[in-house]
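@channel sequence for tomorrow's demo:
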Amino acid sequence: TAGAYFEADSAHSSGFYGIKLSSVGTDKWFLGSYGSANFQIKDGSAANGDERFTIQDGTGKVGIGTNDPDAKLDVNVGSSVTAFNVSGSEGQLFSVTNNLSSGSIFSVNDISGSPSVDVDADGTIQLAPLLPDEMVGIGTTNPTSKLHVVGNTNLDGALTIRSVSPTLTFNDTT
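structure tokens (generated this afternoon):
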């Protein structure tokens, strides 16, 4: 025998079913489906509320801040909001397990859509400042060249300089 459950079955042609939460006659939240086969959580009324969470019917894709997710989990925060926050006091806070045999497992793209940081399945980590004004800083938040390192640097292996007219400059800062 089945356990207890709540059923919402729409017998009307208006295309909605769900649970409406109201306070003193004002719609606060809607959980269900309105005008589509997707499951939605809306802030406000079923008809005019802002979709905060969507599970796309047929694909199972989840959208937060979008009603048309492009991936298994698609988060769209618009502007001036932090999309993802992890906090804690110890231990591993974030982990990506690689089960891929090739390709990119993690990428951070710049405003043009080009990857600035890319971690590949083979363990390669690429820092790719592609545009002339994009730079990588290690030990500095204000790099002034493609690679700007502040602090002691240890290089085990060869240093190769490729240029039509290579220049190597040593500055004594004492």
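heads up for whoever presents: The chain has a mean pLDDT of 83.
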